[in-house]
Amino acid sequence: MEMQLLGWDFPKGKGFKDLIDRAGLYPVTCLVTLTERDKKFLLANDVILCKSLSQRIEILDKLGLSPAKIRSVVNECNMLCE
Question: Which domains does the chain have, with CATH numbers?
Answer without folding.
Answer: 25-81 (1.10.150)
